[in-house]
Amino acid sequence: MNIKHVGVVGAGQMGSGIAQVCALAGLNVRLFDQNKQAVERGFAVIKTSLERLQAKEKITAEELAGVLSRIELITEIEALATVDIAIEAATEVEAIKQVIFKDLDRVCQPQAILATNTSSISITRLAAATQRPGKVIGMHFMNPVPMMQLVEVIRALQTDDAVFEQVTEMARFIGKTPVDVKDAPGFVANRILLPMINEAVFTLYEGLASAEEIDTVMKLGMGHPMGPLALADLIGLDTCLSILGVLYEGFSDSKYRPCPLLKQMVDAGYLGRKSGRGFFTY
Ligand code: NAD
Predict the structure, then answer these.
(1) d(Cα 281, Cα 273) in Å, to the nearest integer?
(2) Of 2, 73, 74, 169, which cross-links 79 as Cys (Cβ 3.0–4.6 Å)?
(3) Closest ligand 1 atom to the C-alpha of 234?
(4) DSSP letter string over 231-246?
């Protein structure tokens, strides 16, 4: 594997998870966010997650220390100049990602791969924002990253086959199972998942059952390990709303219209686990 140095952009729940699994596999990681507080929060989350693994005897104290020593916290994007791959995991807003991709294109060495963990946004459009569209690709991890096996590897229309192969190899190297998926709004995972979550929110909005009862129906009735409303809280309601917006606009199809209750909850700042309150309280 010729990828040794990884840059991660955004130290939120996904970015910190991606940094953790890369460092656990022995790669050197630079974790970037806009401010010091955000990277420090991300690093604290990684530490807690590793301590849980140590308590379960899945890693030793030495391994824990090794992983943490391979993660460098940075607040200047220029520090990503020497990475082999940058994985963008910032807020799910296309305008933010467009700026990040232009910046990465400017600072990263010409051969570096620029990947995005976007849940839904066009990889083809992000690739077109750079001078290296063949080196741009989607690498869609699932939440929580340390626990979930899947990575959707999404080729932009412009992505080079060699880049696709390298990223697929990297996904396997860090212990994940890559699935080759084409670039379309929401790819496969969120094209299927988000309409289900949205419909669950509609059932709550229409008063068909309580949040607990809706989740119980899907857990006990469908064998889902987690109900759709608890899952929405885990994903982040702002992220869910953004993904639905991308599906709605991308397919020009009213079947993806976000439930008014979801919009209202985001307006209220009830974003799920990350804000302490969503459909459930944390
Ligand atoms: P989050 O809100 O937890 O974290 C986003 C982070 O991005 C924050 O720390 C924020 O400070 C940072 N950020 C924003 N703008 C930035 C910029 N210009 N430069 C650097 N950092 C910036 O969000 P998240 O849940 O970690 O989601 C991140 C990405 O991963 C999104 O694209 C999302 O769609 C995708 N994703 C999320 C999930 C999920 O379940 N939450 C699953 C798969 C993919």
Answers:
(1) 8
(2) 74
(3) 40
(4) HHHHH-HHHHHHHHHH
Report, in angstroms and rounded to the nearest whole number, the Rg of the chain calculated over CA atoms.
19
Residue pointed to by tokens 């990465």: 104
179: helix, coil or strand?
strand
Which helix (H) or strand (E) segment is 191 a member of? helix 189-205
Residue 187 pLDDT:
96
Task: Write down the residue that tokens 């309409």 correspond to.
Answer: 195
Give me the residue label for tokens 């790669």: 27
82-135 pLDDT, tens digit each:
999 999 999 999 999 999 999 999 999 999 999 999 998 999 999 999 999 999
Is the whole model's pTM more than 0.85, yes or no? yes
Rounded to an integer, the average pLDDT of 195-217 is: 98
Taking CB atoms and a 6 Å cutoff, what residues make up the pocket around ligand 1? 9-15, 33-34, 38, 89-92, 96, 100, 117-119, 140-143, 235-236, 239, 274
- The two tokens of residue 221 are 């009735």
| Banded pLDDT at 62 (limits 50, 70, 90) | very high
pLDDT tens profile 215-261: 999 999 999 999 999 999 999 999 999 999 999 999 999 999 999 99
User: Cα angle vertex 9, ends 8, 10, to 5°?
Assistant: 115
Cβ atoms 18, 87 nearer than 8 A: yes
Q: Ligand 1, residues 8, 13, 36, 274: which to mutate, most atoms within 8 A of Cβ?
A: 13
Please say if the pLDDT value at position 1 is more than 90: no
Which of these, 123, 119, 72, lies nearest to 231 by C-alpha position? 119
